């Protein structure tokens, strides 16, 4: 059996200029980065094209294949004669070298060249990291230069694009009187940086600069906010991002065009690709397939409650990805029996799928199709049970085999999605923008997660008062919590209800334009697993061929 990277290397890719021409773009519209990738000029006018959102049930250690399904669906729509474009996120090096791997899809449903995508790509993440850390450097230089802005509490953190738990809390300015003022600091992963969120929520370069200027970096002795505009470095930071703001053009193994841009995580950020890429794709194609990170209670909720509001776009249909294995895992099956028939685990775990369906269909009022990724060990009876269950909820199921068959393996999914697109909908938001931040968090926790009680710890209560004092209650909320459960406890699988949901702290993101609620045991700088993926990679130093990258 060929590995993902071996399959990708065998693909008959077209020069990226040809892919651009398929979208109606000329050579003057693209800036090539080698033969197979390019930056393109954004196209942001209002479009009547159809937007299809791909989301998933809660992730498990086995993977559900959300990106693989997104790519397979786009390829299937192309095979059906539709003018289609993907709009996906870029991978972070942290997961690439950690446990999750890259973000190119898998099997015969990949975007390629996958090595380019997973390793540096066009440098967007490096630009975001540098822009973030330029602000940090300006802050510490201002402190060293007699602190003219009276910064007493620094809120801004450095970032890097790697899982490195040792950098969560550090002390800087040690060792010499020339090192500046000694203080506590820390790093977030680049995907959780506010600069990443800003890049993905900005509507153009001018909006990007304005959002950067509005970032709150510190509080002064009067507890008043100090902004990037007070540091007078918003132009310099924007300069570092002038190319990164342009979407990247890529292709699938079947030569379907794909815009890949931005990469915020959905468990610690808002989990969607850039507004600029999504709206550009909608201008270039009749059908656009995009995705939101992790489970629908995280990525899809933020897509609807944050991105749709800012971008003025609506998903015309939603694909909910799951697997038999995932359902049984949520029903208590262990790793030794996860691939074997287990009726009890299947019937118990299907509540997790049902929770996601009900949220999308009843809470958000969206057209939903379930994509069930099929594996060789799935039985006909198991698949039939999932079909029966979804039918009882008024939702169609498509069995997907595009991992092994490419777009042809997602033809049933494409047919069901096209049917749903004939039923116009507008999403129902979880909360009103006029709600205060506490109410917004409580509505998400109770309506979407099914929590029975929401508890705010002292630090969160203190920040609620700070948010009110700064008149920021009208901002949306971005929940940072575990992706493995509807709750804030990774061990509560299935569809838990009535649990206590704990908000530990809140962070103000005036540049991105939302409030981050940190819930449960979540970190904005992930760590590596005991055996990270980096230990299983190798490179042939004679040929440069990489092995173990996935």
CATH topology of the largest domain: Rossmann fold
* CATH homology-level superfamily of the largest domain: P-loop containing nucleotide triphosphate hydrolases
Mean of pLDDT: 93
The share of residues in extended strands comes to 15-25%
Q: What's the helix count?
A: 19
Number of domains: 3
Q: How much helicity do the residues have?
A: 25-40%
CATH architectural type of the largest domain: 3-Layer(aba) Sandwich
Tell me the overall shape.
globular
CATH top level of the largest domain is: Alpha Beta
- Helix-strand category: alpha/beta
Which blocks of ≥5 consecutive residues have pLDDT under 50? none
**Biggest sheet character:** 12 strands, mixed
Structural overview:
The strands form six sheets. Strands 1, 2, 3, 4, 5, 6, 14, 15, 16, 17, 18 and 19 form a twelve-stranded mixed β-sheet that branches. Strands 20-22-23-21 form a four-stranded mixed β-sheet. The protein starts with a helix and ends with a strand. It has three domains: 4-123 and 244-420, P-loop containing nucleotide triphosphate hydrolases (Rossmann fold); 126-231, Domain 2, N(10)-formyltetrahydrofolate synthetase; 437-519, Formyltetrahydrofolate synthetase, domain 3 (Roll), CATH 3.10.410.10. Helix 3 (66-79) packs across helix 17 and helix 6 crosses helix 7. The chain has 550 residues and is an alpha/beta fold. The protein contains 19 helices and 25 strands. Keywords: ATP-binding, Ligase, Nucleotide-binding, One-carbon metabolism. This is Formate--tetrahydrofolate ligase. Belongs to the formate--tetrahydrofolate ligase family. It catalyses: (6S)-5,6,7,8-tetrahydrofolate + formate + ATP = (6R)-10-formyltetrahydrofolate + ADP + phosphate. Its EC number is 6.3.4.3.
